[in-house]
Inverse folding.
C-alpha cells in the first residue's frame, strides 16, 4: 500500500511538472506573438508616416514651393526632394 501511494504521488508530481512546463511554454509563445504583432504594427505605422511625408513633399514641389521650405517642413534632404 505504501508503495502504491508513493507511485501515485510520484506520478502526480511528474504530471504536475509536465503540465506546468506546457502552460509556461504556451504563455511564452503567446507573449512572443503579441510582441511580434506590436513590432509589426509599429513598422507599419512608421512606413505609413514616411509615405505621407513623401506625398506631402511631392504635392509641395508640384505646387512650386521652394526646396528649402519643403525640406524644412518635411525634414527630407533637399537632394531627395529634387529627385522626386
Amino acid at each position: 500500500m505504501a508503495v502504491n501511494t508513493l507511485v501515485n504521488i510520484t506520478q502526480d508530481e511528474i504530471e504536475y511538472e509536465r503540465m506546468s512546463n506546457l502552460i509556461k511554454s504556451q504563455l511564452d509563445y503567446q507573449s512572443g506573438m503579441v510582441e511580434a504583432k506590436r513590432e509589426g504594427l509599429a513598422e507599419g505605422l512608421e512606413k505609413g508616416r514616411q509615405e505621407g511625408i513623401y506625398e506631402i513633399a511631392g504635392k509641395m514641389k508640384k505646387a512650386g514651393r521652394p526646396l528649402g521650405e519643403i525640406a524644412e517642413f518635411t525634414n527630407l534632404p533637399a537632394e531627395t526632394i529634387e529627385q522626386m
Notes: Residues 2-82 form one domain.
